[in-house]
Design brief:
Strand content of chain B: 15-25%
CATH class of the largest domain in chain A: Alpha Beta
CATH class of chain B: Alpha Beta
Structural class of chain B: alpha+beta
Number of domains of chain A: 3
Number of strands of chain B: 12
Strand order of the largest sheet of chain A: 3-5-1-12-9-10-11
Largest sheet of chain B: 5 strands, antiparallel
Number of helices of chain B: 13
CATH topology of chain B: Uridine Diphospho-n-acetylenolpyruvylglucosamine Reductase, domain 3
Shape of chain B: globular
CATH architecture of chain B: 2-Layer Sandwich
Oligomer: heterotrimer
Chains: A alpha+beta, B alpha+beta, C mainly alpha
Largest interface: A-C, 64 and 61 residues
CATH architecture of the largest domain in chain A: 2-Layer Sandwich
Order of helices and strands of chain B: EHEHEEEHHHHHHHEEHEEEEEHHH
CATH topology of the largest domain in chain A: Aldehyde Oxidoreductase, domain 4
Helix content of chain B: 25-40%
Chain lengths: 736, 326, 145
């Protein structure tokens, strides 16, 4: 990437800024989907299927309709037919979308089968409980291990079977992963309002334009511009907002039929049936190496659940074919259609699963060989990405491992299992490497310099928590030569320029680069205006020699010669200058692009009582340039908390008899609470700036920070107890 | 939530009268409102008893402690007399729920709280406790959290309270006021095992109101404590728990009060463990030997077999914590 | 309600949480689970932190309720400021409940150590995983008390 001759000084980027939306959030003024005040709103409450598969034989709505304030009960028997125009975009997986209220089929337990609309929430909830639905039930298929699989995706290099057979050291391991649910604190919610043929949605979404707007337009068969999506705040999502789920359509349908704006907030229970999940997996791995631990062969057979109507896949094969130098690899990844709702990407998608297997196996191999686990990884560090043959845009895993080992005190460790005891607790340490194939996609942004010298930058992206509201104005402020306080950044509205999904660690790289492009261009527009303006002190100066600081353009080597944006625009009677900027990755990438990390942890295990407690954790990351260290730190610590949940607590349980999720609530599906979390520490490697990845040098960090956490914990549990646990989460019963 | 009539009881007599007419008492409301929202509970009338004068903690003449039914969990846990005399009660309370819920929920309501069995809480599932005769989905379903003691072919749901385990251990009694006046019921007889009538959970007669829980005096010094084993470090119901109180004298165990939670359809008094301890010299070996009989009657289900061993170890650990390592 | 006397006629079934959100337009208090299992709806009733979702509004005749909107006027409450300083939130959805719970925690004097704060703040789930910084924010505000 060639640098622009007049590259702006970087004053905001890289500094620890507090969140610009902080005051709104701590005072309760931030408006999440269900918080918008829409006049005349009615309340929608969905009724869910209570069988795991079958047909609806009857819907009795009389008792519900008799309730005061009930406006309508919609179901497949009376709902209007919807066009459901094909939409291969919007993160819809291959298959056929669930078409709400369009037929009598029940495809999974909890599927929406009716919706009640009433004047009050209390009436709608009560009436929903009075709708009687009868079914011709069939036994659902919910067992990942026994159900027939689809034709697998395959990857191979070398001759893995022969190399494994010949390898002097062999491991043959079988891992299992429970289904996990995102469980953002904000339940998914939609307020839908029609004005003629125009639909406005206040929605919880991670993809305003390409997701919710495009999908709802296709469902209703209307032009995309006829759907407006407003989503200024997202109360966490972690992937659950990457699709427009059926309830969004239900809200819009209910509003259409009743002629009222309808507010539909999913219950916590409904989130387990209606907004995707990280699929359950079985993952068998055969690993062969020489006696020095140099990997020779890796054979991987992966099975993952999907729904009966859509084929969901994710990048679970990545770590198993690119992380370590391995001449011979064979992978098969088969989806298994079950009577469940369709999965969706969840934080660290694919990698949080695949890397767990690889990193636990490396620990097992290190122990088998008597080699330090860090040393084993260094011995297998690849020169290039062997799966693509491409060089890494940057790969500083060695530094992550070295820094982590030093800061954690790794080398003080006695490698023997069960070697440290503290009262009733066995104490162990463990580590794992982390990797994530961060995304990048075309994005646009709109930048405007106002006559008063302030700027407004907009893009239709989201901020589900990473701090988009803060990091984007940091990029913009530097590119425009303004201070943070004079740049406003707005997001979350489909009227704004389109951006990729707010996920896959691609927002900063993609939208940030578009913001930079827009701001560079509008700054150059201002400079061009000045140098061509005979009344400007900058008249006839070479534009490449002009920089902007604090809103004042001046000659780089002569700060006395210049003027402010405000002076320039005022004199020229310009209301504003504006540009739509864009950025997109090249079609053919010349690099393999990944964020890397190393996670170290100390756990205490009371093996008499089956308890595991994390005592400390350190993550060291190679995530490229860090735009805002304060917020990046929070994101890393949050990733660790998510990983602790994946390792020790999170497990969606299905009753095989009817496909019912039996722990569909926050008292039984356990996520970490404050008392579970000790001191956590994150370090980002100094000097990160991956210009091979994108113009602003960032690699994305929201996903890599959860990867490897569960493996480090699992490996530490082995070190503490001598027990290998190959199933997540690690439960009391596994340890007793 | 089904519609209901809301009334506020002016005094205990009015409350009892309203209860006799079928009204459901509401105090903290943390269980009742939750279950009404799930439509598990559908009372026609809700009688607010929070204004009644049942919020006192007093020391009884014999040296026991009487906790009024409307004392908040947080207040009971923090009370100096409770803390000093029966740490096991304070600990059980503070290991329950969350600070917010403890600020709302009362002692009477706590022992009346209903099971966390997921099938009980889900009106689309079969449950003999909620809908007698509909069957028990837990028996052949997911039953990790269910009882290994005291279950029947009709129901295997655990009682979720922690403090009730301490009350059972300490042989507390429940004070009741009904149409026929006051009476006391031993705590271990107050909560009922499911048998063939899992819908009957307690010994209350129509209209009867819990006025207090009384913990009798025990020989002093009494050491006591509560251990709660759970997946998460806080804000979770017990997998297993143990309430232990010991009086040591003359080098031997003179009194032993032990009960377990998370394992029984009611708080489970471990009489066999107590018997094994009495008169013996405290030692790690004694704790192990006594705890070994804790699960003798256990009948585990498909997903809670681990609780059999875990119960023994939980009791053993807490005997050692309270009785000391020797 | 936040220092103001409010008279309102509501359905018996209306929770305090739905009262403030749907009737008073005070949407700072959040519904995360509606079952007392997450703490997002934490408010102060007569000075005590409670779950708004499990409190029937009809029972609050004469009670004093403080929500996040009533915690401060022009100047932020020290705990609100501490949340910003420590970056004790990401998505912000659980934040009003965390702050109201933290105010309760400080009033109850359960701030003697980090581990005490962790336990007494465990009734408020944060899925973004901001616990380390929530503890620091409570410590910061408790220190200035």
């Amino acid at each position: 990437m060639t640098r622009q001759p007049n590259r702006q000084p970087q004053k905001a980027v890289g500094t620890p800024q507090s969140r610009v939306d902080g005051r709104l959030k701590v005072t309760g003024q931030a408006t999440y989907a269900a918080d918008h005040d829409v006049t005349g709103v009615a309340y929608g409450v969905m009724v869910d299927a209570t069988v795991g598969r079958g047909r609806i034989t009857g819907v009795d709505t009389r008792a519900a309709l008799d309730q005061p304030g009930v406006r309508a009960v919609l179901h497949h028997g009376n709902a209007p037919r919807l066009p459901y125009v094909d939409n291969p975009g919007s993160n819809n997986p291959p298959g056929e979308r669930l078409r709400v209220f369009q037929d009598d089929r029940v495809r999974f337990f909890g599927q929406p089968v009716a919706v009640v609309v009433a004047d009050t929430l209390e009436a709608a909830q009560h009436a929903a409980s009075l709708v009687t639905v009868t079914y011709a039930a069939e036994p659902p298929s919910t067992d990942l291990t026994t159900a027939p699989a689809d034709e697998p995706q395959r990857y191979a290099r070398g001759d893995a079977e022969a190399a494994w057979a010949a390898a002097p050291v062999k491991l043959d391991l079988a891992f299992r992963f429970s289904r996990n649910h995102h469980n953002p604190m904000e339940p998914h919610a939609t307020i839908a309002r029609w004005e003629g043929d125009t639909l406005t949605l206040w929605d919880k979404t991670q993809w305003v334009v390409g997701g919710t707007q495009q999908e709802l337009a296709s469902v209703f068969g209307i032009p995309q511009q006829s759907v407006r999506v407003i989503s200024p705040f997202v109360g966490g999502a972690f992937g659950s907002g990457l699709r427009a789920w059926p309830h969004v359509t239900v809200a819009a349908l209910a509003a259409r039929v009743t002629g009222r704006p309808v507010k539909l907030v999913l219950s916590r229970r409904q989130l387990y049936f209606g907004t995707g999940h990280r699929p359950a997996y079985t993952y068998a791995l055969k690993l062969g190496s020489d006696r020095r631990g140099r990997l020779a062969a890796s054979i991987q057979d992966i099975r993952a659940e999907t729904s009966s109507y859509e084929t969901f896949t994710e990048a679970v094969m990545g770590p198993g074919h690119m992380m370590y130098r391995t001449p011979n690899v064979r992978q098969a990844y088969a989806t298994v259609p079950l009577d469940v709702n369709t999965p969706i990407w969840m934080r660290g998608p694919g990698y949080a699963t695949g890397a767990h297997v690889v990193e636990c196996a490396m620990d097992e191999l290190a122990h088998e060989l008597g080699v330090d686990p860090i040393e084993l990884r260094l011995r297998n560090e690849p020169e290039t990405d062997e799966s693509s043959g491409l060089p890494f845009s940057s790969r500083r895993l060695r530094e992550c491992l070295a820094t982590g080992a030093r800061e954690f005190g790794w080398h003080r460790r006695n490698p023997a299992p069960r070697s440290t005891r503290d009262g009733d607790w066995l104490v162990g340490t463990g580590m794992a490497a982390a990797v994530y194939d961060f995304g990048r996609a075309p994005a646009q942004a709109h930048a405007r310099i106002n006559a008063d010298g302030t700027a407004l930058v907009q893009a239709a992206t989201s901020d589900m928590g990473p701090g988009t509201y803060t990091s984007m104005p940091q990029v913009a402020a530097d590119a425009l030569g303004l201070t943070m306080t004079t740049v406003e950044f707005r997001l979350g509205d489909s009227l704004m320029p389109p951006t990729p999904p707010h996920g896959g660690s691609m927002t900063m790289a993609s939208v940030g680069s578009a913001v930079q492009d827009a701001c560079d261009k509008v700054r150059r527009q201002a400079i061009t205006l000045a140098v061509n303006d005979a009344r400007s002190p900058l008249h006839r100066v070479n534009p490449d020699d002009v920089v902007v600081r604090d809103g004042r353009m001046h000659v780089k080597n002569d700060p006395t010669r210049g003027e402010t944006y405000r002076q320039l625009l005022g004199r020229n009677q310009r209301d504003h200058l504006e540009v739509i900027g864009s950025w997109g990755p090249p079609e053919q990438s010349r690099y393999s692009m990944h964020a890397f990390g190393a996670v170290f942890t100390e756990v205490a295990v009371d093996d008499r009582l089956g308890l595991v407690r994390v005592r400390r954790m350190l993550g060291v990351y190679d995530a490229g340039r860090i735009i805002n260290p304060k917020l990046a730190d929070s994101q890393a610590l949050g990733g660790m908390v998510g990983g602790i949940g994946q390792a020790l607590l999170e497990h969606t349980v299905t009753d095989a008899r009817d496909g019912r999720i039996v722990n569909a609530n926050l008292a039984d599906y356990l996520v970490p609470v404050n008392a579970d979390i000790p001191d956590l520490r994150a370090i980002y490697l100094d000097g990160g700036n991956d210009q091979n990845a994108d113009p602003i040098g960032v690699k994305g960090l929201g996903e890599v920070v959860i990867v490897g956490v569960a493996a480090a914990i699992t490996n530490a549990v082995f070190h503490a107890t001598g027990r290998r646990i190959r199933e997540l989460p690690i439960t009391a019963e596994a340890l007793l | 939530m089904f519609p209901f009539t809301y009334t506020k009881a002016a005094d205990t007599r009015a409350a009892v009268a309203a209860g006799q007419r079928g009204g459901r008492f509401i105090a903290g409301g943390t269980t009742l409102v939750d279950l009404m929202r799930e439509t598990v509970e559908r009372p026609d009338t809700v009688v607010d008893i929070s204004g009644l004068p049942l919020g006192e903690i007093t020391t009884t003449r014999s040296g026991g402690v009487r906790i009024g039914a409307l004392v908040r969990m947080s207040d009971a846990a923090a009370d100096r007399r409770v803390r000093n005399t029966f740490p096991v009660i304070s600990q059980a309370l503070e290991l329950s729920a969350s600070a917010q819920l403890r600020n709302m929920a009362t002692i009477g309501g706590n022992i009346m709280q209903r099971t966390r069995c997921t099938y009980f809480r889900d009106v689309s599932a079969a449950c003999n406790k909620r809908a007698p005769g509909s069957g028990c989905a837990a028996l052949e379903g997911f039953n990790r959290s269910h009882a290994i003691l005291g279950g029947s072919s009709q129901c295997v749901a655990t009682h979720p309270s922690d403090v009730a385990v301490a009350f059972a251990a300490l042989e507390a009694s429940v004070h009741l006021l009904g149409p026929d006046g006051e009476r006391g019921v031993p705590f271990t007889e107050f909560l009922l095992r499911p048998g063939n009538t899992p819908e009957r959970e307690h010994a209350l007669r129509p209209g009867e109101l819990i006025t207090a829980v009384e913990i009798p005096a025990h020989p002093r010094p009494l050491r006591s404590g509560y251990l709660k084993v759970r997946d998460r470090q806080s804000y979770e119901f017990a997998l297993t728990s143990a309430a232990v109180a010991l009086h040591l004298g003359g080098g031997v165990v003179r009194a032993a009060k032990v009960a377990a939670g998370g394992v029984g359809t009611v708080p489970w008094k471990l009489t066999a463990v107590e018997q094994r301890l009495l008169g013996e010299r405290p030692s790690d070996r004694l704790w192990t030997a006594a705890a070994a009989v804790a699960a003798d009657d256990a009948e585990p289900l498909a997903h809670n077999e681990f609780k059999v061993e875990l119960l023994k170890r939980t009791v053993e650990r807490q005997l050692r914590v309270v009785g000391g390592t020797r | 309600m936040n220092g103001e006397r409010r008279t309102v006629t509501v359905d018996n079934r209306t929770s305090l949480l739905d009262l403030v959100r749907e009737h008073f337009g005070l949407t700072g208090t959040k519904k995360g689970c509606d079952a007392g299992a997450c703490g997002a709806c934490t408010v102060l009733v007569d000075g005590h932190r409670v779950n708004g979702c499990l409190t029937l509004a009809v029972r609050l005749d004469g009670a004093e309720v403080i929500t996040i909107e009533g915690l401060s006027r022009d100047e932020l409450h020290p705990l609100q400021q501490a949340f910003i300083d420590q970056d004790a939130f990401q998505c912000g959805f659980c934040t009003p409940g965390q702050i109201m719970s933290g105010v309760g925690c400080i009033r109850e004097r359960h701030t003697g150590s980090a581990s005490e704060i962790r336990e007494w703040m465990s009734g408020n789930i944060c899925r973004c995983g901001c616990y380390v910084k929530i503890v620091k924010a409570v410590q910061q505000a408790a220190k200035g008390r």
